[in-house]
Amino acid sequence: MGITIAATVRSPDIAALARARGWNGYGLITCTINAGVDVANLSISGIPHDCLTIINKGRIGGVINSGTGLYTRTRIRIDNSSGTIFGGGGKGGTGGGASVWLTYDPINYKADAFGGSGGNGQGFSTSGSVTLVGATGGAAGTTGYTERSGSGTATAYGGTGGTGGAVGQAGGPGSSGSYTGTGGYGGNYLAGGAGIAAGAYVDGNSYVTWVANGTRQGSAIN
Q: Which of 11, 79, 142, 149 has the fewest CB neighbours in a 10 Å radius?
């Protein structure tokens, strides 16, 4: 039996589409995803082993911030010769914080700064209509300032969050915090956090026979 996904869709139920066409629950299914069609978060369920072949001519992908493109615990075949399957890009790392103080009075003349959040990784939107959302830059950190008239000043700077990763790519690291001052001052800072890994293009790779690999972006989970 042949079925076609001809319009962009989120999490389609291939078994239900086949039953609507008269599938008997155990026969062979060939599901074609047309060129130009986006399918977000494709999960295979309700289909026996070795019944389903997917011919992907469009894009199967995960949502922003490490979403998984395709999930299966059913043995299937995939012809991805003219298609793309990707995991969502990873979120950027958090910027590092910092503290600074005037050394002659570190309790009363102390300032803190906090790192900015990481940007979002590229991927399909998490709700509503399915659109490919671009990666974003990280947020700026905060600034803390203290001074004592005639004695000195000190400023702490939170690091900027890392940029989110493109599809199949980890997010970038956040920037470290820092501090400066005049007169007698001291401080400490934290390094920026590491970016988050990209999502898997497939979770259940050991269940997939790849007729043709095509373009696959991200990691594979067996």
A: 149
DSSP-derived secondary structure for 43-90:
EE-S--TT-EEEEESSEEEPBTTT--SEEESS-EEEE-TT-EEEPPPP
Output phi, psi for 206, to 5 deg.
Answer: -70, -15
Pairwise pLDDT comparison (143 vs 183), residue with the higher score: 143
- Quickly count: other Cβ atoms within 10 Å of residue 109's Cβ: 19
User: Does residue 168 come out as left (phi exceeding 0), alpha (psi in the -120 to 50 range) or beta?
Assistant: left
For residue 175, which amino acid is it? S
Q: For 169-197, give one letter per residue: b (16+ CB within 10 A) or e.
A: bbbbbbbbbbbebeeebebebbebbbbbb
Joined tokens for residue 27? 């026969």
Q: How confident is the model at residue 31 (pLDDT cuts 50, 70, 90)?
A: very high
Residues 6+ apart with CB under 8 A from 152: 102, 181, 182, 183, 184, 185
Whether the model clears a pTM of 0.85, i.e. scores above it, the answer is yes
Cβ-based neighbours of 133, under 8 Å, separated by 6 or more:
64, 120, 122, 123, 124, 125
Cα–chain center distance at 71: 16
What span, in angstroms and rounded, lies between the C-alpha atoms of 161 and 170? 14
Largest pairwise CA distance in the chain? 86
Give mean pLDDT, residues 103-112. 85
